[in-house]
Structures are given as C-alpha cells and as structure tokens.
Design a protein that fits this description.
single chain; 192 residues; alpha/beta; Glutaredoxin; five-stranded mixed β-sheet; two-stranded antiparallel sheet; Thioredoxin_domain; membrane; transmembrane helix; cytochrome c-type biogenesis
C-alpha cells in the first residue's frame, strides 16, 4: 500500500475547508429566499385564529364618562364592528374620522375596546375627537384584547348577527379598506 503524496494530503484537508466556506453562502441564500417570500405578503393579512369562531366571552366596564360597558352578549342579533383603540395610538387617530362617518351614516354599529389606556386619557380623547362607539369597554389590563388575538392597536373585527367573527382588519381602517372590503362584507352579512 502506498503512502499518499503531500499534494493528495493537502487536497484531503481542503475538502472540509470548502464545506465550511460554503455554509455562510448557503445560509445567506436561505435567508434571502425567506425575505423575498416575505416581501410579497401584506402584513395586514395576518391570519386570525378567531375568524369563523364565536367571539370570546368577556364583560368590560364602560370607559370613564360613558354609561354603557361592553360585553360579548352585546354582539348578538346584528352585524357589528368591534374596534380596538387607545388614546396613545397615532394610527387610531388616523382612522377615527372614518369611524365617526360610520356612526353618522348609521351603516353598522361600531363598538370599542379601549386597550391599556388610562381612564382619564380615554375619556379626554373621545370627548375631543367624538365618540363613534355604541358601546365602549375599558380593557385596562389588556386581557380581553389577548382573548381576541389582538397584535396591536388599532384592529377592527366584523362580527355577524350570530356573534361569530368573520373578518379581522389589522392596522387602521383606510378609505380603501372600508370601500373595498369592510362595507361590502357588512352589506352582504346584513342581507343574509
């Protein structure tokens, strides 16, 4: 049996070195593929585990200065929107005029869950901007929002007359979302 030459021994040592040098390139290609896949997705279209299921049971006291609290039993009998908001939320301020329009036009009842807000801040905010909500519950510790699967505020849910969640809007309601998705779905559900 012959002994490998020096050139053959060096070649054998380079094989593991090539593999080690290739690993970062393979990792980079894998990460790039994940990022490219993610770029084509709409972040507001995160699937909700609650869609197609009954609203979670809850009872919330009214926001300071309001007389009506909000509970899961209020979501039976008619199609409605549930909007999760907070006074400290900039995007909530952006969507607020659209919620006021919904109230003024009487298209669909809008109920509010005030998320992790100081009572006086929520009352001041609704007093200054107007109150678009039929019922508004104070979720000061955020537990009800967790049951609803809220990622952050604002989020809006469409609930059918049976109390089943049929749609979840992540982020602020825009005129386009209202016109293209929310109102057509509300009208279809109201007609059923």
């Amino acid at each position: 049996m012959s002994t490998p030459s020096a050139t053959e021994r060096v070649g054998e040592r380079r094989k593991p070195l090539r593999l080690v040098l290739f690993m970062p390139l393979a990792a980079f290609i894998g990460l790039a593929a994940v990022f490219v896949w993610g770029l084509g997705r709409d972040p507001s279209q995160i699937p909700s585990q609650l869609v197609g299921k009954p609203v979670p049971g809850f009872t919330l006291p009214p926001v300071q200065g309001r007389t009506l609290g909000f509970s899961s039993t209020d979501l039976k009998g008619e199609v409605s929107l549930v909007n999760v908001f907070a006074s400290w939320c900039v995007a909530c301020r952006d969507e607020h005029p659209l919620l006021m329009e919904l109230k003024e036009n009487g298209i669909v009842p809008v109920h509010g869950i005030n998320y992790k807000d100081r009572p006086e801040d929520a009352a001041r905010w609704l007093g200054a901007l107007g109150d678009p909500y039929t019922r508004t519950g104070a979720d000061t510790d955020g537990r009800v929002a967790i049951d609803w699967g809220v990622y952050g505020v604002p989020e809006t849910f469409i609930v059918d007359g049976d109390g089943t969640v049929v749609y979840k809007q992540i982020g602020p309601i825009t005129e386009a979302a209202l016109r293209e998705t929310i109102l057509p779905l509300v009208e279809r559900l109201q007609a059923e």
